[in-house]
Specification:
31% of the residues lie in helices and 26% in strands. It is α+β, with helices and mostly antiparallel strands. The chain is built from five helices and five strands, in the order H-H-E-E-E-E-H-H-E-H. Strands 3-2-1-4-5 form a five-stranded mixed β-sheet. A hairpin with a 2-residue loop joins strand 2 and strand 3.
Length: 129
């Protein structure tokens, strides 16, 4: 019957530097990675939303990712009326960044808590890599 056709997949996930701090990650690294990837920008083009990430623990904080017409901007500090809130511990965030923990495992193990428009959660991989 021959080989199966390959499904289009996202490019290899960009991995942030191991020692990146949360503010640099959300304010600089994420917007830069999305801006440099035409395919990710195109898939986000119809999304206008604000996602707020709360990282608990020493060295954590509150950060936001602002989506608008394919552009991504990051900010530090809480935002008013985010569309989706993502709560996790700093250690979980670090393990997700290094690939030691997958996002599905983190959700299943209740390491990540979501509040708000859960439909936006399916787009997290487009934003965070």
């Amino acid at each position: 019957s021959g080989p199966r056709p390959r499904l289009s997949a996202m490019p290899e996930r960009a991995v942030p530097p191991r020692d990146i701090d949360p503010e640099t990650f959300f304010v600089d690294w994420v917007p830069r990675m999305v801006a440099s990837d035409h395919e990710r920008r195109a898939k986000l083009s119809g999304t206008i939303a604000v996602l707020e990430f709360t990282l608990a623990g020493e060295g954590g904080g509150i950060f936001a990712v602002h989506l608008g017409a394919g552009d991504v901007r990051g900010s530090a500090g809480p935002v008013e009326a985010p569309d989706l809130q993502i709560h996790l511990h700093l250690e979980t965030w670090e393990r997700l960044n290094t690939g030691e923990l997958s996002a599905p495992d983190a959700f299943l193990r209740r390491k990540v808590k979501l509040q708000g428009n859960l439909a936006l959660a399916v787009k997290l991989h487009l934003i965070l890599g």
